[in-house]
Amino acid sequence: MSNAAKPAARPLSPHLQVYRLPLAAWLSITHRITGIGLAIGTVLLVYWLASAAFGPAAYATASAFLGSPIGLFFLAGFSAALFYHLCNGIRHLFWDMGKNFEIKQTTVANWIVLLGTVVLTAGTWAFTLLGRG
């Protein structure tokens, strides 16, 4: 017979229900999601380019779809994903060089990624929509 002590009744690791993920973790998760979104959005881009090769009728159909509210919604999401992925990729390049690993530097970089995404997306769409008028 053994006299082994009973293990303590405690969780083995932090659970997502009680653990608050830091912003850097959310940005990492979002980076992966936007990568998938960019792959799907590229199919939409290829559809538009291929429609130009198939003639005026096909191009008019593609342009009508992309100019519709749902098409503009997809294009806005694609551009936001593209700029987010770009900004976060630049942050990862700095990390690859061994820079910005301190918590304060990482926090600043997190907010720069988010601000850069908003500014680049809004700037692109403002430029695009103002160019239509």
Characterization of the model:
The protein is an all-alpha fold and about 130 residues long. The chain has one domain (about 25-130): Fumarate reductase/succinate dehydrogenase, transmembrane subunit (3 helical TM bundles of succinate and fumarate reductases). It is about 75% helix and about 0% strand. It contains four helices and no strands. It has helices at about 25-55, 55-65, 70-95, 105-130. Helix 1 packs antiparallel against helix 2, helix 2 (about 55-65) packs across helix 3 (about 70-95) and helix 3 packs antiparallel against helix 4. The radius of gyration is 23 Å and the shape is elongated. The N and C termini lie far apart (about 85 Å). About 10% of the residues are buried. The mean pLDDT is about 90.
Structure summary:
The chain is mainly α. It is 76% helix and 0% strand.
What is the CATH third-level topology name?
A: 3 helical TM bundles of succinate and fumarate reductases
Structural class: mainly alpha
State the domain count: 1
List the helices and strands in order: HHHH
At the fourth level of CATH, the homologous superfamily is Fumarate reductase/succinate dehydrogenase, transmembrane subunit
Terminal Cα span: 87 Å
Specify the biggest β-sheet.
Answer: none
Using only C-alpha atoms, the radius of gyration works out to 23 Å
Note the overall shape.
elongated
Q: Which percent range fits the helix content? A: over 70%
Range of strand content: under 5%
Ranges where pLDDT stays below 50 over 5 or more residues in a row are none
Number of strands: 0
Average pLDDT across residues? 91
Query: Which CATH class?
Result: Mainly Alpha
Number of helices: 4
